[in-house]
Amino acid sequence: MLTIGLDVHQRFFAVCILDVNGERVKELQVRGRWPKLIEQLKQLAEPFAICYEASCGYGHVYDQLTPIARVLVAHPGQLRLIFRSKKKNDRVDARKLATLLYLDQVPTVHVPRVDVRSWRSFIEFRRRLVDKRTRVKNSLRALLRGHGIAAAGGKRLWTKKGRAWLGEVELPTSQMVVQRDLLLDELEHLSKNVSRVERELNARARSEAGVCLLRTIPGVGPRTAEAVAAYIDDATRFARSKQVGSYFGLVPSQDQTFPRNRLGHITREGPATVRKLLVEAAWQGIRRSARIQAHFAQVRGDDPQRKKIALIATAHWLVRVMYTMLRTGETWRPEPQRPTSGTEGTLATEGGGEVEGERAAADQREVA
Question: Which domain holds residue 14?
């Protein structure tokens, strides 16, 4: 079988072909779009396998190539660790990918179905809209604060009454009035867009059993549940729950050399949107569930300086619980009523922990 390394661009492809002995058979450059590349590959007389680096649109590339060959998608971050070269061009990159494929050392990534890729993209699209809306809200507050105008705190300023007050408040110059009016128009437009996106996401979430399952955890709203379910996708692709924490970048970086083992900040690998939502869900869970609160208190101990560390550790534990629920299909089970401690819930996890509590109805919202 031939092994082929591809360096993929929108209208250009660098191709390196190795034979069964790992020797270079051919190197070529294909200018054009996908049909032209596929036409070139179909001319090969022997069966072949293809490796390329994950980038924008890697899922579409995978869908185009899987009908004609075995396809592996390489993790770009891990490739940088393997090949640190000061000479980098498309031809060299294709050769390195072909070599990795021949040696069976490709650090692969999971390629979800097209509907899951679309779901993930829509979740990220909502996050960007919410971030824009938050920036507009902060700009409005900065405008008022810059002229010494006191405004209602928290979410009251963004209610219908609060926006009406914003539209009527007196400002010292006409330029400030125009700025205020444009920001209010943008805020209304973004709020409508966010609502429209969330209606679509809610419709998708109602059809996903995994989202409904995760929403039974105290503090986990629809946005967190759908993000975790979409990015985990197939729970069986993880061998252990610890791999899920690493996938979402919630594990500490490590530098171990005998006899010392140094642990640093979390790796922050994987989707940042899910990581942010998990931290928000951990805060909500601490308020609503005695078991989650106990886990947080156990990590924090008596040191108030460990509050942030304990919060991240709780988010890490929470996503491992979510993974276990998705893998086993078990819901959050309420425990029988106790006279002393009230209602709790337990669910054995892969790591030996338990989860408990009631369903949280409130979703996490951004703070402007």
Answer: 2-102
d(CA 175, CA 95): 59
Percent of all residues in the chain with a pLDDT value above 70, rounded to a whole number: 89
Contacts of 54 (CB under 8 A, 6+ apart): 73, 74, 75, 76, 109
Give the whole-angstrom CA distance, residue 97 versus residue 110. 17
Q: If you count DSSP H runs as helices and E runs as strands, how many of each does the chain have, helices first?
A: 13, 7
Determine the Cα–Cα distance for residues 188 and 193; give it in Å rounded to an integer: 9
What is the rounded CA–CA span in Å between residue 188 and residue 109? 39
Instruction: State the total domains in the chain.
Output: 3
Q: Are strands 260-266 and 252-257 parallel, antiparallel or unpaired?
A: antiparallel
Beta strands in 43-155 (DSSP E): 48-53, 70-74
Using pLDDT thresholds of 50, 70 and 90, give the confidence band for residue 332: confident
Statement to judge: residues 225 and 148 lie in one domain: no
**C-alpha 342, offset from chain centre:** 35
Which one of 45, 72, 102 terminates a domain?
102
Query: Could you tell me the pTM of the whole model?
Result: 0.85
Pair 140, 111: CB distance under 8 Å = no
Q: 282, 292 in Cβ contact below 8 A?
A: yes
Q: Quote the CA–CA distance of 315 and 309 in Å, as a whole number.
A: 10
Q: What is the CA radius of gyration of the chain?
A: 26
Same domain, 247 and 300: yes
Residues 201 and 227 in one domain: no
Q: Does residue 228 sit in the same domain as residue 319? A: yes
CB distance 250 to 242 below 8 Å: no
Cis bond leading into 339, ω under 30°?
no
Question: SS3 for 231?
Answer: helix
In terms of pLDDT, which residue wins out, 34 or 368? Answer: 34
Residue 92 belongs to a domain with what CATH number?
Answer: 3.30.420.140
261 and 314 part of one domain:
yes
Query: Which residue in 133, 159, 180, 199 sits closest to 367, CA to CA?
Result: 133
What would the pLDDT profile of 210-262 be if each residue is shown by its tens digit? Answer: 999 999 999 999 999 999 999 999 999 999 999 999 999 999 998 888 888 89
